[in-house]
Design goal:
With 143 residues, the chain is mainly β. It is 12% helix and 36% strand. Keywords: Decarboxylase, Lyase, Pyridoxal phosphate.
């Protein structure tokens, strides 16, 4: 599972297949196609849930998007998230697994996240540590 921190939230008016104007909420997170390229490459379909607290109120049609400012940088295309979602909340995207890590990149100079192993009743253990900015830039020879 991948954990993301919510950033900006904005509502966008869209026209549905029946010509009706609806509002879709866009929820940006602190990752995206650099840590999960499967939605843009393979049209992978994920679910998402609020992970850091109990939701309150109704669920709102949402789209979870990454921070890369690319049209394909969509983490979850269609989902319902709590109306009271706010910046700083944590979203969990299950079933992201090993393939997401090996497909990951430093796109837009984002460092790669850590991989943490856990099991019911067990302490969490990092198995791959977070990449530092210095490590990411180490191959850059400059001019």
């Amino acid at each position: 599972m991948t954990l993301y921190t919510v950033g900006t939230i904005k509502n966008v008016s869209i026209e549905d297949e029946h010509g009706q104007i609806r509002v879709r909420r866009y929820v940006s997170v602190d990752g995206g196609m650099s840590d999960n390229a499967r939605p843009v490459l393979y049209d992978a379909d994920y679910t998402v849930t609020l992970a850091n607290r109990a939701p309150a109120g109704e669920q709102v049609l949402s789209r979870v998007v990454g921070k890369h400012c690319e049209s394909g940088d969509i983490v979850v295309r269609y989902c319902y998230l709590p109306a009271d979602l706010q910046a700083g909340d944590i979203l969990a995207v299950p079933a992201t697994g090993a393939y997401c890590y090996v497909l990951g990149s430093n796109y837009n100079y984002l460092s790669r996240p850590p991989v943490i192993a856990t099991s019911a009743g067990e302490a969490a253990h990092p198995i791959i540590r977070r990449q530092s900015e210095d490590e990411m830039l180490a191959l850059d020879t400059g001019f």
